[in-house]
Fold this sequence. Notes:
Layout (H helix, E strand, L loop, with lengths): L9 H31 L11 H28 L7 H31 L4 H22 L5 E2 L5 E2 L1 H9 L6 H11 L1
Antiparallel strand pairs: 1-2
Helix pairs in contact: 1-2, 2-3, 2-4, 3-4, 3-6
Amino acid sequence: MAKQLKKRPIEKELKFLADFELYGVLMFAGMYFATKFIIDMDFGKNVFKLNWISFYPLLIFSAIVIEGSFYWRNKLRMVKRKTALSNFEIGRIYSKLRWINVILLTAYLPIIIIAVLEKEDLSGIIVGILLYFMAIIEQINYFHIRLSYESVNGSLLVIEPLKKLFTGTGKRSQLRKDIDTYLKG
Length: 185
């Protein structure tokens, strides 16, 4: 039996997406700093010293998710017939952001290689790599293929979207459709 997707009214869905993305950024940042504080247990002068090996991918992840939140908020404004950017304008802006994100994601690769070669703190490397993969997943989810699906009972489907990603059968994300509209002129 096929899993049915949960249906919400479009306004509620867009508001949920816009708000949930911002809450997610705040939650991940809070968890990052709480975990860093607990693991480091540094009450001295280095209490707020950042580990750039893990903090940089958190910044990239946060930027991509905030871009997504603004995208959904703009779509909500369109649905409510308020002043909003057109699909063409969104496509123009996000086609540039897509490449900025790719550059930022690519810039992390030499950083992590150097960190491994220099035998940096293993916990920072592991957290950095996990956050990096989450940023890549968000980049794919927003700018290429939709990876987030919700079932009727409200649980997120994980395996099916990954199968669609690797088999090339996934649906283009809505943002990607807007980018394509812009690129076609």
